[in-house]
Amino acid sequence: MNIFRLAGDMSHLFSILLLLLKIHTIKSCAGVSLKTQELYALVFATRYLDIFTGYISLYNTLMKMFFLWSSFTIVWYMRYHNVVRRSYDKDQDTFRHYFLILPCFILALLVHEKFTFLEVLWTFSLYLEAVAILPQLVLLQRTRNVDNLTGHYVFFLGAYRSFYILNWIYRYFTEQNYYKWITWISGLVQTALYADFFYYYVKSWRNSERLQLPA
Amino acid sequence: INDITFHDEL
């Protein structure tokens, strides 16, 4: 564990807590893409299967259980909670996220570290996570005024993978022949998708004006 | 642990 990875995990944890706070306290999911939440639930479900087969540390296991629990809870709130679901703008959240799942799965069947059931699903979860934010970014462009909590949620979600990139650089230079091309390239693609969001987020923060993404 | 590729990161 290094400071970059801890910062990344804490940023990820914080982003989910922000979203849970928004949904649980003000019972609203306005501006939040259900499709991105569903993709993330699938990412965690296919990546954290190893909590049944292996044990790394208490931290690792607790974080995996929290990510699994929170992602499915958020999807449940947005789909079935009769107050929250009313604030979900389904006619704006129209990204065809099913078109992301199959190509990621096929790519995982073709490009992976080892051709085993767990490893292919793990690789699939990496590719899917790289593109999972797309429905949310599209929704933000359509939602004229993005509320602060949603903006902060997306920012910290993007920041977590950026910290992970620093973590991979650190590990590359400090550990003997440590390299994970698949993870690194997926992480770079994932972070690159946030580039313009980061630009407008920092700009709105500097000018202390509401966050607005150009259509 | 070399039978399953070891993923220590979240």
TrEMBL record, chain A:
Q: Name one Pfam family in it.
A: ER_lumen_recept
List GO molecular-function terms, semicolon-separated. Answer: ER retention sequence binding
How the protein sits in the membrane? Answer: Multi-pass membrane protein
State the UniProt keywords alphabetically.
Endoplasmic reticulum, ER-Golgi transport, Membrane, Protein transport, Receptor, Signal, Transmembrane, Transmembrane helix, Transport
Where are its TM segments located? Answer: 55-77, 98-115, 121-140, 152-170, 182-202
Signal peptide residues are 1-28
Keyword Transmembrane helix listed: yes
Q: Where in the cell is it found?
A: Endoplasmic reticulum membrane
Q: Quick one: a GO cellular component term?
A: endoplasmic reticulum membrane
Choose any GO biological process term that the UniProt entry carries and state it.
protein transport
Q: Which family does it belong to?
A: Belongs to the ERD2 family.
Q: What is this protein called?
A: ER lumen protein-retaining receptor
